[in-house]
Structures are given as C-alpha cells and as structure tokens.
C-alpha cells in the first residue's frame, strides 16, 4: 500500500501558469534552470499579484510587457513601468535559454549586475531573421559577437529577439497561446507604447494534480481523475 501511495505522490516536472488576457489565453511553463525567477513568479501568481494588471508597454515585432502593479487602477495616459516590489531577483542568464518567440523574460533597469524586476516581465514576439540579417546583427549591434548554432537555427525559423540574449533572464516559455502575443502586439499604442485600449491579464498557478495531468496529456496518456486519485490527493499539498 505504501508503494502505491508513493507512486500517486509524484511531483510534476515543471510549474505551469495559466494566463488569461483580453486577447486570448496562454499556458506558461517555467524553467527549472532559473529557480529564483521561477519561485518568485510562482509566489506572486499564488497571491494574486497579477490580477487585473495591464500589458502597459507593447511594441510590434518586439515584445509585450506587463507586471507593473500601478497599472491596475491607472488613469488614461498615466505613465507606467516603474512599479513593483522593493527587491530585485539576481540574474540567472544562461546561454541556452534564449529569446525565441513565446518565451517570458524578466524586465530590469540598467543596473550593472543585470538583476531583474521582481514583478515586471515581457513575452517575446520578435521576428524571423534571414541568415544575412543575423550576419548584420552580429557585425553592428552585437559588435562582432557570434551567435551560436542554436541561436541561428531558432531565429531563422521560430524567430525572436536575439539582441536581448545575454542581457536579460529568460525564465519560461508558452506551451499554448503564442498567437495571443501577436494579437496584443498589434494594438494601437500612444507615444509611450501603452495601448490606447487597456489589455489586462489574470493568472492562475496550475495545481499539483492539474500539472501532473497536463504532463500526462503531453506524453499521450489519459488524465488521472478517478475516485482513488481524488482520495489520495487529499493527503498532499494542493501545490508543490
């Protein structure tokens, strides 16, 4: 019986967040390779920090940014982008976690340690590059720094924002709803890149059971929803 119980106590491989917006819904997977950003984001989502906040900075073919708590009740034309908790997250920049389309990155100011804002984030839209365009990017914007084979493959197929690599922490990616970024990115904006019509968000952390069933679904397996599952789940934390 103990072995059966332990088998049912399996922990999901990742944390997942459902993001609902005025333009559609997304499903986000957080990277385990960036644990400080992952854990901070999980705690903010659990406490409802992002409920009703706006995507306050939107730039077509670049990214859509949100997470400023001052945006919840912001008046029209009110400048946004400076709000957030009074702490920063240490940089967790990794070479293989790049700014491909659909990833989530942590916004930051110009601090030399590249520490991240505790709450503000951006979802990458970017664009698809030709090999020649990447050559030009290396020569001029990256001052001769060469892109890796992985970067060239991703940015000539999926697309993204290669000039941000190495400067900002990427800490997750959308499994569903990448096209929602495209919908948000084309809204009309003012001179500060704030949408003229508010685009708001809400977020929900998937529970342990929801995450386990999602991972089963991705493996082509049916979800566990039976009576025994529900009984055993009573004995474990709702989250993980």
UniProtKB/TrEMBL annotation:
Keyword flag Calcium: no
Broad EC category: isomerase
Keywords on record: Isomerase, Rotamase
PROSITE patterns hit by this protein: CSA_PPIASE_1, CSA_PPIASE_2
Keyword match Metal-binding: no
Gene3D superfamilies tied to this protein: Cyclophilin-like
The EC number(s) this enzyme carries: 5.2.1.8
An annotated Gene Ontology molecular function: peptidyl-prolyl cis-trans isomerase activity
Similarity comment: Belongs to the cyclophilin-type PPIase family.
This protein's name: peptidylprolyl isomerase
The organism's taxonomic lineage, starting at the top: Bacteria, Pseudomonadati, Bacteroidota, Sphingobacteriia, Sphingobacteriales
């Amino acid at each position: 019986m103990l072995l059966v119980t332990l088998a049912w106590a399996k922990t999901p491989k990742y944390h997942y967040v459902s993001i609902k917006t005025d333009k559609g819904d997304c499903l986000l997977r957080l990277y385990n390779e960036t644990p400080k950003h992952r854990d901070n984001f999980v705690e903010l989502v659990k406490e409802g920090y992002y409920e009703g906040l706006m995507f306050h900075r939107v730039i077509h073919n670049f990214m859509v940014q949100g997470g400023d708590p001052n945006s919840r009740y912001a008046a029209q034309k009110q400048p946004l982008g400076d709000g957030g908790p009074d702490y920063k997250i240490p940089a967790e920049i990794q070479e293989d976690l790049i700014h491909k389309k659909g990833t989530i990155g942590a916004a930051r100011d110009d601090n030399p340690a590249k520490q991240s804002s505790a709450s503000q984030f951006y979802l990458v839209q970017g664009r698809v590059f030709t090999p020649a365009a990447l050559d030009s990017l290396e020569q001029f914007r990256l001052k001769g720094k060469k892109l890796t084979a992985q970067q060239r493959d991703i940015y000539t197929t999926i697309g993204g924002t290669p000039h941000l690599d190495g400067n900002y922490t990427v800490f997750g990616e959308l499994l569903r709803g990448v096209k929602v970024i495209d919908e948000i990115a084309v809204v009309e904006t003012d001179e500060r890149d704030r949408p003229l019509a508010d685009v708001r968000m809400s977020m929900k952390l998937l529970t342990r059971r929801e995450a386990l069933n999602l991972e089963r679904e991705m493996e082509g397996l049916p979800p566990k929803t039976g009576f025994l599952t529900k009984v055993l789940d009573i004995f474990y934390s709702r989250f993980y």
